[in-house]
UniProtKB/TrEMBL annotation:
<feature type="domain" description="Gfo/Idh/MocA-like oxidoreductase N-terminal">
    <location>
        <begin position="7"/>
        <end position="137"/>
    </location>
</feature>
<dbReference type="InterPro" id="IPR036291">
    <property type="entry name" value="NAD(P)-bd_dom_sf"/>
</dbReference>
<dbReference type="Pfam" id="PF01408">
    <property type="entry name" value="GFO_IDH_MocA"/>
</dbReference>
<dbReference type="Pfam" id="PF22725">
    <property type="entry name" value="GFO_IDH_MocA_C3"/>
</dbReference>
<protein>
    <submittedName>
        <fullName>Putative dehydrogenase</fullName>
    </submittedName>
</protein>
<dbReference type="InterPro" id="IPR051317">
    <property type="entry name" value="Gfo/Idh/MocA_oxidoreduct"/>
</dbReference>
<dbReference type="GO" id="GO:0000166">
    <property type="term" value="F:nucleotide binding"/>
</dbReference>
<feature type="domain" description="GFO/IDH/MocA-like oxidoreductase">
    <location>
        <begin position="148"/>
        <end position="278"/>
    </location>
</feature>
<dbReference type="InterPro" id="IPR055170">
    <property type="entry name" value="GFO_IDH_MocA-like_dom"/>
</dbReference>
<dbReference type="InterPro" id="IPR000683">
    <property type="entry name" value="Gfo/Idh/MocA-like_OxRdtase_N"/>
</dbReference>
């Protein structure tokens, strides 16, 4: 970062054997802007110690619990203590940890969903407001360069007034009852006490919803939904379907499933306006297809000609060199870090840039919207009303 010291960050969760913690660390390291200085990686003492050793941390800053991490770090000199905390735990810990860290004077970058429910999310929002600290959420897919290109093209009216928004997120890894067979990642995600109100809904349905609103620039006003648990005995949904009514008259469909046997990570977004539309797939992220009423189909390539400067700024390699999930994640970390630095030293000035700004990243507003979506889906799916309003 132009000769400046790295941003010192800590991590809670993400120890040995955890997937998403390693992804966060790779993303933070990609631009050499962050340094991991401390953590409470596991409540298992041996796993916590081994994790810290592998990561090369000072053993004295591998804390046995989160409750020990915050006061110990706060007591260190300002030029040594962590500046930001990455929260990569199961969902039930997101809110209490984020609130405690913000109130202790640390910036927070948290895994999604924001909290267990909308009420918890609002308490986090209040903590962000009173602390003046940054709060970011790992809605990773909004960090892809061609998602930014898609958002720009919709916003400048290339397709005319938007009529249709279709988003699908299809996985198959929960097609069997692995949550009852010892798979720890599956086990907590299907436990209401740790996952929250929704299973598939909270885990990947929130990603689909956030991406649809982010790229379309439109807010969902109401929805009609169905939740299903296809695997016998499963306590939370593993399949979601929702009809969406957007502001301005656009209509949409959201489909998310974790029991689409054989599917890997099939996130796909299609948006259509009066004159044409776009099509993007996460498993082929370097291509954006544009289709028109009155001219040939175009395929826009990452790094190729014609990209908006804001999309180009999110690219890291020349055209033809595949970029993917880690790079998209790193874009969020880079934006978070630059915003942190820009606001350093000015109380309350470290606020997320507006959507469309060069260093925008998902924050509390995205978290509140997605939690409102989760609760509206559950309300609608469990009742007799045809449509449920999505407020806030």
């Amino acid at each position: 970062m132009n000769g400046r010291s790295k941003i010192r960050y800590g991590m809670v969760g993400g120890g040995e054997g955890a997937f998403i913690g390693a992804v966060h660390r790779m993303a933070a390291a990609l631009d050499s802007e962050y340094e991991l200085v401390c953590g409470a990686f596991s409540t298992d003492a041996d796993r916590n110690r081994r994790s810290a050793e592998v990561l090369g941390l000072d053993p004295g800053r591998a804390y046995a619990t989160f409750d020990k991490l915050l006061p110990a770090e706060a007591a260190l000199p300002a030029d040594e203590r962590m500046e930001a905390l990455a929260i990569v735990t199961p969902n039930h810990l997101h809110a209490p940890m984020a609130i405690a860290a913000l109130d202790a004077g640390f910036h927070v970058l948290s895994e999604k969903p924001m909290a267990l429910n909308l009420a918890e999310a609002r308490v986090i929002g209040a903590a962000v407001a009173r602390s003046g600290k940054l709060y970011g959420l790992a809605f990773t897919y909004s960090g892809y360069p061609l998602i930014e290109e898609a958002r720009v093209r919709v916003a400048r009216g290339d397709f005319g007034r938007i009529r249709l928004v279709q988003v699908e997120y299809s996985q198959g890894w929960l097609s069997r009852p692995i949550d009852r067979d010892g798979n720890k990642q599956a086990e907590w995600r299907t436990d209401p006490a740790r996952a929250g109100l929704g299973g598939c809904l909270g885990d990947i349905g929130t990603h689909a919803f956030q991406l649809a609103e982010h790229v379309s620039g439109l807010a969902v006003e109401s929805l009609s939904a169905e939740l299903t648990a296809h695997v016998a005995g499963r306590r939370l949904d593993d399949d979601v379907a929702a009809l969406l009514r957007f502001e301005g008259g656009a209509r949409g469909v959201l489909k998310a499933s974790q029991v689409a046997a054989g599917d890997e990570n099939g996130l796909r977004l299609r948006i259509h306006g009066e004159e044409g539309g776009l099509d993007w797939s996460q498993m082929e992220p370097n291509s954006l297809t544009l289709r028109w009423l009155d001219r040939p189909t175009e395929v826009i390539r990452a790094g190729g000609p014609g990209l908006d400067p804001s999309a180009m700024a999110r690219l890291r390699t020349p055209a033809g060199h595949p970029e993917g999930y880690i790079e998209a994640f790193a874009n969020l970390y880079r934006s978070f870090g630059r915003t942190l630095r820009a606001g350093a030293g000015r109380a309350g000035a470290a606020t997320p840039p507006p959507r469309g700004a060069a260093d925008w990243f998902p924050g509390a507003a995205d978290g509140l919207r997605t939690m409102a979506f989760v609760e509206a889906v559950i309300e609608n799916a469990s009742g007799d009303a045809k449509w449920t309003s999505l407020a806030g």
